[in-house]
Amino acid sequence: MSDVSPPKGSGPLARLEARLAWGLLAPTIAAVALVVILPLLAIFWISIKPVSLSDLRAPEVVIREDIRGDYESVGDEASIRYRLRNSSQDQPIRGVTITDTIPQGLAVFDLDPRCALDGRALFCDFGDWEGGFRETLMIPVMVEQSYLDTNLRPQDTDATVTGRASSVLSNATFTFDNFKRVFDGDEFWSVLWVTLFYTVFGTIGALLFGLFAAMLLNKSFKGQGILRGLYLFPYVSPVIAVAFAWILLFDPFSGSANALLIQMGVTQEAINFFGQRPLALIMVTLFEIWRYFPLSFLFILARMQSIESDMYEAADMDGASPFQQFWYLSVPQLLGILSVLFLLRFIWTFNKFDDIFLLTGGNAGTRTLTVNVYEQAFAVSNIGAGAAVAVVIFGCLLLFSFFFFRFISQEEGL
Amino acid sequence: MKHLRFGYVTAPVLGVMWTFVIALTVAIAMSFATGSAFRPSGLGALIWGAGLGLACLPGPVWKPVAAGIIVTIAALFGFGPIAIGDGVSGFSSLLGAAGTAGFAVLGLWIMLDEVAFGPINRHVFEAAIIKFLTGFGYIFFTAIVLIPFYVMVLTSLKNQAELIQNPLDFSVDLSKGWDLFRSYDELFTQFNFGTYLLNSFIISVLTVFITLLFAVPGAYAVARLRFRGRAAFSRSILLIYMVPMIVLALPIYIAFSMLGLRNSLGGIIMIYPVTTIPVALYMLQGYFRGLPAEIEEAGLMDGLSRLKVIWKITLPLSLPAMASVSLYVFMIAWNEFLLAFMLLDDPSKFTLTRGIASLNSSEIPRQHLMAGSVIATVPIMVLFLGLERFMTKGLTAGSVKG
């Protein structure tokens, strides 16, 4: 018998299959590259640029055109007026030109030296404009009969403007001021501390609450389905709706929670739950726990229901008490899902923006890194600094995902 | 722990804790329902709770019943576990007092079912503790979940003056009839909420369709086809799913500002599906892996092409998974706030969440804000409760993002 060895390399069928696979994945890869990868690269680029919110619009020539003077009868002298300006106060525009059509029946009898007339086509070259430049161009014309007949005004035809302006985003100015700004002072460390507090306690709290709720519902009784649905409410409803409900509930002036606490004699005067340190941070963390315990609860419950009940029966026979059964049987079984959930929730809580933004707007000592991106970019109008914070977040994320793949790959067999 | 394991210690201790929990619950419930002054009394719970605990140890039924009646009367006279303020109507007082005593006795009777008066073993002791924790857990979770929604719905039915006068009074004056829903009416007639509802709905449905269009072939490729880089690919899906939205929102905002795509629903529809495709792909590929490959192979042998196999065999088999994924994607798109908030400024093009955000100003009364919240919450709740089975399955299948 001759030697039989498995084929080496990839055969035509395998290649066909691979080509089909990439074909099927291509739309997804393209879309994700466009909306995820490209913006990520953009963030790195912007973070080393001195960009503010107002720089997002490239400077352009603003033009207004109208006709002045008498233009009621034949022989009247009028002038076409162009009011021009550079929309930016500090950025220059290079090579500004205007092209327009003079309407029928307006005879130009005096022309600005910068302009040239070819038939009815007007062309003007203004050269370079500094920031804040303004100019009014008058073109005197004589009204003829055909103008009165056609009723076509100069402003009815749009003038075409050309001009090159360099945008901060695309030129070669770089700066490290954004990062300096982000890391400068105590602010960065307080933001980092708030983020860590929120993330760690939010994650652990949601896990513990989820575990407790899952144990409650891990038995069949009438109404179990209803309760399970009910306990998922915080997670499925829109964050903006529940966040405002919380704000209203804990309002210092007309909130029910304060009224209740005062009535029960816990406090003498209203507490400003979302407005004072360090209570605001604790409240947003509680909100995070409240909103996301359903998710952990769902996963833990699914895992619990897949544990064989024989094991508990055997333990019962051996005289293990309920707490011992929980500690020595349930907890080891749940450890896998708990650690996966911890890592996932940790990363997602770290990334969370909406909740804190809606509850406190990052005030009263609740500014996390993600809220700081928004604060820097839009409240302080410094897009570059916002991008720098985003880069810091991305760095943390890479670190987390390293751990994530270390542990989760074993847990999920990915 | 050992010295706790006597019926005459366990019963009073549990009695005190349970009675306090019940008194607190009843006080909060009665306050929220009627707006009148109820509060739990620590001292009352301590004294009466211990007594109730002892009375509820297994024995003749008349003992707990009598104890309950005594506690009710004590509460009505002002020294029970629940303190009733002045000026509370007789019916409310009776309801509060009897409710506290009744639920306390009922709970304790169930908890102390097997607890004897003397020494008890570890099993019985821990079973009693677990029953207490279970009861407490049900009350606790139901309360924390329901209260914000209760406040949301009832605030939307009241007016500003009533709210400030007594923030606890959520009683609804039914005699007002349809006038109760005035905030809703105003939102739809003056604040354009009909359009927002429609916008949100269209965007969500389109997002679901586009997501499935991209994710189904992708998920099939990752689940079934062998190609170099498959493992790396399925990992990077997860990685993408961890990039925070705010990091992406900033460059998207800049790009949209420059391209003039801000304030257009088209721009939103371009972005939303991409945020959901990785999740959908991950959930679907998990499901596709679970389908038997033999059926598909049979289809291939019978001369179907791969694409036909997906269309005629895989898709019909995975309808439940498609339902879960669609629901989940719909929920994400419906609830999305950040991008809508950053990219939409024109009130005629708002989505519901953006519309609610615009109601958050001092000039617009609170009940409008809450009515808007209810309008956004109800459709997703109805959808979710109707299809809860798919939802829970879908959520657990996909290690889902929040």
Protein model, in words:
The complex is a heterodimer of chains A (414) and B (402). With 414 residues, chain A is an alpha+beta fold. Chain A has 14 helices and 8 strands. Chain A has 2 domains: 61-164, Mu homology domain, subdomain B (Immunoglobulin-like); 177-412, Orthogonal Bundle (MetI-like fold). Helix content of chain A is 54%, strand content 14%. In chain A, the strands form 2 sheets. Chain A has a 4-stranded antiparallel β-sheet. Chain A has a 4-stranded antiparallel β-sheet with strand order 5-6-3-8, with no helix packed on it. Chain A is elongated and about 115 Å long. The two termini of chain A are 41 Å apart. The mean pLDDT of chain A is 84. Chain B is mostly helical. Helices cover 74% and strands 1% of the residues of chain B. Chain B has 18 helices and 2 strands. In chain B, strands 1-2 form a two-stranded antiparallel ribbon. In chain B, helix 14 (319-335) runs antiparallel to helix 17. The longest helix of chain B is centred in the middle third of the chain and has 35 residues, at 122-156. Chain B is flat. The interface between A and B is large, with 103 and 108 residues.
